[in-house]
Design a protein that fits this description.
Belongs to the HD-ZIP homeobox family. Class III subfamily. By secondary structure, the protein is α+β, with helices and mostly antiparallel strands. Helices cover 35% and strands 24% of the residues. Helix 4 (56-123) runs antiparallel to helix 5 and helix 12 (468-477) packs across helix 14 (653-678). It is globular.
């Protein structure tokens, strides 16, 4: 008992109360090193006399407790942030629920009204009463989508413009928070604290409209500033000119704006808008930016004329920014436009009639851009490579803008059509004006990098049964399927001090490979900015000069197959290995825009290039592509636009034009082959099977594969109807099991060199793209370990059986197989083929 009484004060003396001076000294060390070592703690006691009465163990405990408090503080702060988001989202959902209830009540009333009108019409026996019923019904329908008409207002009268602005504000708020438009939620857009927000599109209204609402961690004034900078987030915006700014008595501003937008494809004209934009604040502290076109029906001044554009109409649209408790904002964005659909060919009208495409291009793009800047401002996004986020966004914007300039080829940018002898499937345009670069995205110091001019070769085609996201992802991952290394070399030559050492590109006969180096990606991962290193491999002395590493700055977007209405795009530009932030860019690439499913009068699985000059008639009549056949079922259709830009010297202009035309035609052919290979409906669409390879090398390799199987296993791989090489090739090609061959090189991953038709289907690729696929990329971890463990057995015994497993296609789809056989390939002399060749057969495979 006495011993216990003696230890108690001894133990309690270990819990010291630190003085403010001691805490300050410990905090200074903690800020430098939260977890000091034992030697550092002892050094601290020696250097700080005020800590001399504290034992090292007690200091260790203090640092442990301090780290624990810091962790708890961060967790509490994170939970408070999530709680604020959930509270704001709950408020948003409750308001959305109230709006939907009002919309349901409105529809119930509409339904009852229509029933009453139908009953009245059926009971009416006179023609006058029938006409009166139709007129009343039409008047009621007009009330649902009002189109007010006003007398011409004085362009110089601010009061008249304020009246238009207040009307625009009221109509916009009725769309953003009311039931003026029948909104239908887009598929896949689920609300949540970290989601993009609530996204809806219009149903049965004039024009096309989209609406979104969500949370952002920025104050309303900052959100308004970002939203007004439309070219930074609306990639189709070519230019925006504010011609007049008028302050209002309530502290707001009225702006008269002229905006030009790019056409998405070469097959249609670009659009422009003449609008009034009104910025004001509401009584609850919310900020509103609303906008509408000024027309003869709305009144107001007349906009500037435009000859190269089709004047489109912006119906009341804008953004409502409401402050949140604890910081941040709730924003509602509405876009409502009439793009004059009758001025484009019928086959392209779905591009201008789709609310989903509008939502992806404008409404969702604005919200994503605001959220991106919010997370960058809060330090939630870390970028590598020493580049600032604004610089990386600038790269993306310049790539898109340069590609849009090439696709549209505006005369005032200096573009002119290069004459041809007749109708061409590939359009060639040239630009010999340095003002084009100085006036758009480059300054005068960069013009010499582009020689004496730029030439653009472009084409558009209609694709069917090919998902845009799948096609662009394939083009990105399998560049060798469509690109030519010699042309890439010529494009990269414009960056060199003596750029025209390669006078004209020629098709290269040596292979190349690509390495994709990620640079940045957006928050939603819908867009990727990356550097691509192209590695050439020369086999002849004359190719050594061309076989050098080159670099491309590449932008890829829209490769999510679940994104409804998203445009898929792959744009790249040659760069130096260490490119500056203001490096000149000359973009080329692909854009695939989905069209709404529609019954077409084309042959099964038709994939063709549109005749740009003669087959596209404009007007309300029925236009169809040339071709015979019965109407198909609903098909997935999309418009593909290809544009490649090249620099040239004047004395080489015709040579470069010929090369560019030939190259784009070869790219179109490659894309058609890829589209036919990856089309999901190719089995049922009546397409011809993949072309049977007939080269002497293929015949020899097939003979070696079959005889090696017989030597090692003592049995026949194929039935012995004929031993002729062409007969063996045909049997192997149409074998039901996936048979493929890969080369084994020292210090390199095994690369596939051959596969039969079943093998290509399993890998979801083509013979040309097969060389880009490595064996270790398709095997899962278990399959890779088993193959490694059996490799010595294969080399000694000649073959090995592999158990059932899972592998992955080039498109990322899992494939199961019941059994696999691997055997060593030997030549006619039963000697190992150079670099070791391994054959594999996957038995009874199927997609999971």
């Amino acid at each position: 008992m006495a011993l216990s009484m003696h230890k108690e004060p001894l133990d309690s003396s270990k819990y010291v109360r630190y003085t403010p001076e001691q805490v300050e000294a410990l905090e200074r060390v903690y800020n430098e090193c939260p977890k000091p070592s034992s030697l550092r703690r002892q050094q601290l006691i020696r250097d700080c006399p005020i800590l001399s009465n504290i034992e090292p163990k007690q200091i260790k405990v203090w640092f442990q407790n301090r780290r624990c408090r810091e962790k708890q503080r961060k967790e509490a702060s994170g939970l408070q942030t999530v709680n604020r988001k959930l509270t704001a989202m709950n408020k948003l959902l409750m308001e959305e629920n109230d709006r939907l209830q009002k919309q349901v009540s409105h529809l119930v009333y509409e339904n009852g009204y229509m029933k009453q009108q139908l009953h009245t019409a059926s009971a009416t026996t006179t023609d006058n009463n029938s006409c009166e019923s139709v007129v009343v019904s039409g008047q009621h329908q007009q009330q649902q989508n009002p189109t007010p008409r006003h007398p011409q207002r004085d362009a110089n009268n601010p009061a008249g413009l304020l009246t238009i602005a207040e009307e625009t504000l009221a109509e916009f708020l009725s769309k953003a928070t009311g039931t003026a438009v029948n909104w239908v939620q887009m598929i896949g857009m689920k609300p949540g604290p970290d989601s993009i927000g609530i996204v809806a599109v219009s149903c049965n209204c004039s024009g096309v409209a989209a609406r979104t609402c969500g949370l952002v961690s920025l104050e309303p004034t900052k959100v308004a500033e970002i939203f007004k900078d439309r070219p930074s987030w609306f990639r189709d915006c070519r230019c925006i000119d504010i011609l007049s700014i008028i302050p209002t008595a309530n502290g707001g501003t009225i702006e008269l704006i002229y905006m030009q937008t790019y056409a998405p494809t070469t097959l249609a004209a670009a659009r422009d808008f003449w609008t009034l934009r009104y910025t004001t604040s509401l009584e609850d502290g919310s900020v509103v930016i609303c906008e509408r076109s000024l027309t003869s029906s709305t009144g107001g001044p007349t906009g500037p004329p435009s000859s190269s554009f089709v004047r489109a109409e912006m119906l009341p649209s804008g953004i409502l920014i409401r402050p949140c408790e604890g910081g941040g904002s709730i924003i509602h964005i509405v876009d409502h436009v009439d793009l004059d659909v009758w001025s484009v060919p019928e086959v392209l009208r779905p591009l201008y009639e789709s609310s989903k495409i509008l939502a992806q291009k404008m409404t969702i793009a604005a919200l994503r851009h605001i959220r991106q800047i919010a997370q960058e401002t809060n330090g939630e996004i870390q970028y590598g490579g020493g580049r600032q986020p604004a610089v990386l966004r600038s790269f993306s914007q310049r790539l898109c803008r340069g590609f849009n300039d090439a696709v549209n080829g505006f005369i005032d940018d200096g573009w002119s059509l290069m004459g041809s002898g007749g109708v061409e499937d590939v359009t060639i345009m040239i630009n010999s004006s340095p003002g084009k670069f100085m006036g758009s995205q480059y300054n005068a110091s960069m013009v010499p990098s582009f020689g004496q001019g730029v030439l653009c070769a472009k084409a558009s085609m209609l694709l069917q049964n090919v998902p845009p996201a799948l096609l662009v992802r394939f083009l990105r991952e399998h560049r060798s399927e469509w690109a030519d290394y010699g042309v890439d070399t010529y494009s990269a030559a414009c960056l060199k001090p003596n750029p025209y050492t390669v006078p004209c590109a020629r098709p290269s006969g040596f292979p190349s490979s690509q390495v994709i180096l990620p640079l940045a990606q957006t928050v939603e991962h819908e867009e990727f900015l990356e550097v691509v290193r192209l590695e050439g491999h020369a086999f002849t002395p004359e190719d050594v000069a061309l076989a050098q590493d080159m670099y491309l700055l590449q932008l890829c977007s829209g490769i999510d197959e679940n994104a409804v209405g998203a445009c898929a795009q792959l744009v790249c530009a040659p760069i130096d290995e260490s490119f500056a932030d203001n490096a000149p860019l000359l973009p080329s690439g692909f854009r695939v825009i989905p069209l709404d499913p529609k019954t077409v009068m084309d042959g099964p699985g038709s994939i063709r290039t549109l005749d740009l000059a003669s087959t596209l008639e404009v007007g309300p009549g029925s236009n169809r592509l040339s071709g015979d056949g019965e109407p198909n079922k609903y098909n997935l259709r999309s418009v593909l636009t290809i544009a490649f830009q090249f620099t040239f010297e004047n004395h080489l202009r015709d040579d470069v034009a010929s090369m560019a035309r030939q190259y784009v035609r070869s790219v179109v052919g490659s894309v058609q082959r890829v589209a036919m290979a990856i089309a999901p409906s190719r089995v049922s669409s009546g397409l011809e099977p993949k072309t049977l390879p007939g080269s002497p090398e293929a015949l020899t390799l097939v003979r070696w594969i079959c005889q090696s199987y017989r030597i090692h296993r003592g049995g026949e791989l194929l039935r012995a109807d004929s031993q002729a090489d062409d007969a063996l090739l045909k049997q192997l090609w149409y074998h039901s099991d996936a048979i493929m061959c890969c080369s084994l090189k020292t210090n390199a991953s095994p690369v596939f060199t051959f596969a039969n038709q079943a093998g290509l289907d399993m890998l979801e690729t083509t013979l040309v793209a097969l060389q880009d696929i490595m064996l270790d990329k398709i095997l899962d971890d278990a399959g890779g370990r088993i193959l490694c463990s059996e490799f010595s057995k294969i080399m000694q015994q000649g073959y090995a059986h592999l158990p059932a497993g899972i592998c992955v296609s080039s498109m990322g789809r899992p494939v199961s197989y019941e059994q696999a056989i691997a055997w060593k390939v030997v030549d006619d002399n039963e000697e190992e083929v150079m670099n070791h060749c391994l054959a594999l057969m996957f038995i009874n495979w199927s997609f999971v």
